[in-house]
Design brief:
The protein is an alpha/beta fold. The chain has 2 domains: about 160 residues, P-loop containing nucleotide triphosphate hydrolases (Rossmann fold, 3-Layer(aba) Sandwich); about 70 residues, no CATH class. The chain is about 40% helix and about 25% strand. It has 10 helices and 10 strands. The strands form 2 sheets. It has a 6-stranded mixed β-sheet with strand order 6-7-8-3-9-10, with helices on both faces. It has a 4-stranded antiparallel β-sheet with strand order 2-1-4-5, with helices on one face. A hairpin with a 2-residue loop joins β9 and β10. α3 packs parallel to α6. The longest helix is centred in the last third of the chain and has 16 residues. The relative contact order is 0.18.
């Protein structure tokens, strides 16, 4: 579904992403792990069109989309849940969700209601909060809302950037249970996650990114057993 080749992104004179190659097959859950500043978020922004790469190709279902603007990629079925959630704090939960369906136009009211009901089924707590403004929600509820808003666009490829950041362990479990349910429903997922162990436990394959480059790629179980990964990202001393 997604094939990235030679992706390069620069900020001024700084090369943030240096020739990244990665693939995500339809129906897969794939994770991209690495330390802060490794270039993971920059990579996701380049895939969605939020920033323009300096070089490389991004092929989605066989089509090179490197030059397409953000709204075209959304209509093609690519959605991003950004780091920090990015909800609209002054809009209600329901208004935030409806913003996720804007790409389908004004004639999709019935479909929007149906999709909103689906999101409420995934996150029942949002039903209770639907009239509250986004800024009054807890961190976990805001993460639910950010994922729900992305799902309103009916994505085929969902990009998740640090969904567990700042959340209590119990909320992390709930969020990841829902992510697994979304994947089981046929949505392809590329996950950037600070909790490397959790990411590798739920995904089929993983890439390790260091200083803007992919330095390791393997199936998730092999990476969990890799001494280098265990030392650097799983907190184990050997």
């Amino acid at each position: 579904m997604l094939e990235v080749t030679g992706l390069r992104v620069s900020y001024g004179g700084i090369n943030a992403v240096r020739g990244v190659d990665l693939k995500v097959n339809a129906g897969e859950m794939v994770t991209l792990i690495g330390t802060n500043g490794a270039g993971k978020t920059t990579t996701l922004k380049a895939l969605t069109g939020l920033i323009r790469p300096a070089a490389g190709s991004v092929r989605y279902n066989g089509e090179d989309i490197i030059a397409l603007p953000l709204h075209h990629r959304i209509k093609m079925g690519i959605a991003l849940v950004p780091e920090g959630r990015g909800i609209f704090p002054r809009l209600t939960v329901e208004e935030n969700l409806d913003m996720g369906a804007y790409s389908r136009g004004r004639d999709a009211a019935a479909a929007t209601r149906s999709d909103r009901d689906r999101v409420y089924a995934l996150f029942p707590r949002l039903v209770e909060r639907r009239r509250q403004t986004g800024g009054t929600l807890s961190g976990g509820e805001q993460q639910m809302l950010a994922i729900g808003r992305a799902m309103m666009g009916r994505p085929r490829l969902l990009l998740l950037d640090e969904p567990s950041m700042g959340l209590a362990p119990l909320m992390v479990q709930k969020i990841f249970a829902t992510i697994r349910a979304i994947a089981a429903d046929g949505v392809t997922i590329l996950l950037v996650e600070q909790n490397a162990r959790l990411a590798l436990e739920v995904c089929q394959r993983g890439y390790v990114m260091e200083s803007g480059e992919i330095t390791l790629h393997d199936n998730a179980q092999a990476l969990l057993s890799n001494p280098r990964v265990r030392r650097a990202y799983l907190g184990e001393i050997q």
